[in-house]
Amino acid sequence: MADTTKQAERTAAKLAKQIQAFATKHGGAQGQLAYTGQAGTRIVLVGEDGGWGDLVAPSQEIARGAAEKAGLTLHETFDGELAAKVRTGPYEWSRMAGIQLGGEPTT
Questions:
Q1: Rounded-to-integer distance, Cα 94 and Cα 107, Å
Q2: Whose CA is closest to 17, among 74, 73, 75, 66?
Q3: Residue 10: helix, strand or coil by DSSP?
Q4: Which of 1, 10, 60, 90 has the smallest CB count inside 10 Å?
Q5: CA distance 73 to 45
């Protein structure tokens, strides 16, 4: 049990460092946790400059712990104010259009 707890703490600390690095690069960050089933929990990150990214934690508890360690402001849902901050580029638009129109997504 102690080994499992220590491993969870190490994983949360590693994720917290990655969150902090993202926040530093993007002038700050906010986030949202999305449960993905057995795969774990997705930590969606949105920078103050509109940049975005994500990380995957093995559990909701580890994801929440990492966010707390990093000082990340969490939102309950990914809509409204948080979603409005995301800035997408030509790559994302071409992928979305290709998928929506039944075409092959670009790589």
A1: 10
A2: 66
A3: helix
A4: 1
A5: 10
